[in-house]
Every structure is written in C-alpha cells, then in structure tokens.
Prior knowledge:
Blueprint: H1 10-34, H2 40-49, H3 52-62, H4 65-69, H5 74-97, H6 100-107, H7 110-121, H8 128-149, H9 157-183, H10 189-204, H11 226-249, H12 255-258, H13 265-277, H14 283-315
Amino acid sequence: MPDGMTQNRPGRAIVLKLGAVFLFMVMAALIKAASGQVPPGQAVFFRSLFAIPIIGLWLWQTGHLHDGLIPTNVMAHVWRGVIGTSAMALTFGGLALLPLPEVTAIGYATPMFTVILAALLLGERVRLFRLSAVALGLIGVMIVIAPRLSVGAGYSSAATMGALFVLGAAILRALVQIHVRRLVQTDSTSAIVFYFSLTATCLSLITLPLGWIFPVPALAWTAPGMNVLGLVICAGLIGGVAQIMVTSSYRFGTASMLAPFDYASMIFAVIIGFFVFAEVPTPTILIGSALVIAGGVLIIWRERQLGLDRTKSKGKISPHGTPG
C-alpha cells in the first residue's frame, strides 16, 4: 500500500500503536538487562542489525521493497542515521544508569524540544499556547532530573551522567523529527525505516574498539556471554517488529489520534521496572512525569487544531491560488 493510502480503522490503529509501545518498552528492558556486559555501541549494533531482516520481509510482503531499497536523498538518510544512532546510543547508556521509569519520563521531553527546534530551524510560528505547553513540559523534566543534579543528595555521579545522556537523546530525537519532516518530501516512509536500521548498524561499528567481544581493561565492560548476546539479539528482533507495528498503525489512524498513546509507555515502564528490576518510581518522578505528559498532550492537541485549520484554509483557496 502506498504511503498516502490509509484506512479509517481506529480500533486496529490503537491496538497496533499500543502493541508497538509495549514492545519498545520490552526492548528497552532487554537492553537494560544486558547493559552490565554490553556497551551502548554494541547494543545499537544488535538492535539495528537484527531489525533489518524483519523490516525487509515486511517491505516485501507489503509491496514496498522497491521504495525501501532505492533512496532519493542518500546524504539525508546518512544524517538521519548519524543523529538517530547517537540518540539511541545515549538512551541505551542512560538505561544502564537509571531506572526504567525515569528514562521514560525524561524521554517525554522530545515533543517539547521538537516545538523549539521547529521554530528555530523551520521558522514555524509558535504562539503563547504552545509555548506554555512547552514550558509546562520542561518544568516537569526539570523536576525529574533535579535530584540527579543535586550535590550531596546521595545520588551517584553515574546517575547524573545517565540523566544527561537521556536528556541529550531527547534533544537529538527532536532533531530527528525535524529532519524527517524534510526527508518525507523526497523519500518514502519505507526507505526512511529501512535505511535508518542500515546506517545505524554501520555507524555502531565505529565503537568496535571500545570493548565489544573482548574486554578492555580501562573500561568497565566485560566480555558478554551467550545469554547476554541472546538478550540484545531478541531486542533487535522485537525492535524491528515494534517499528513495523507503529508504522502500520498510521495506515489505519491519524497521527494526532495515535500520538497520546505514546504515554502508555509509562504504565509499561512502571510495571516492567517493578517486576523485573525491583524499581519503584519516586513521587518526584511521578509528579514530573504528569507535568511532562500534560505538556505533551497539550502540544498534540494544538498540533491537531492547527492541522484542521490548515485543511480549512486550503478549502478556501480559489483556483487562482488566492483566498476565496
């Protein structure tokens, strides 16, 4: 089915989106479980490499293989890969140092940074409503990470570094979203999905000397066993399936309708964090998360209203291109 063809089946869209959000959280948990022996670069490699056959099979079954294998703007895909791979590596580094719910909460800052970068890089007009939503969300993020930045509060420097890693990843993911807005004008969604996994696999090999298979004495990483490698391989396969599910969900429902379901990840993060890693979110994390989610939902709502306004405006344009 071509990119532009969708079906209005909201029930299926929501099920696919929630399934994808859950699988992405399972993938994060697998990466976290392996983080003691697998450095972020190696985790990125397995996450990306084993997603490629899953995505390739999906493209073949949906008739998008030709679109997915032939990019139009090669360098744009390379830059998307560089930024996205860096964001993934920082997130995986944060997972090794922070509880899963905390990583999830800080990651919710991405929509806030997207609005800011859209104004700075794309010249989009941001009025008071969205600025207020961004401010609310950023206040929530600061509430979450403030304890990690406090001196003498009993938090380790590693946890502080983890918070900064995840915050940096949120900024980079926002930059990816801005970049993809331009990339979709020349390339299909299929190509964007496929070439990100391919470029991330290649770029992660740059970190090969930093203690992949054989431990480096100067680093904390140790040689991973087969069971640990099995975790990151499963993470790659699950990540590929999740990517397909989230992409497919937008064939059956609008982005504005599905976007709020991203925040279900906090529910999954709390459940998995508690039962798998014995992590209990602090009141600070819960309060900050609530503010970040509120800001994100307001931004989503406003984007939907702006989209409807643009559609109405297009309907009022005369054949000569002037308002009727």
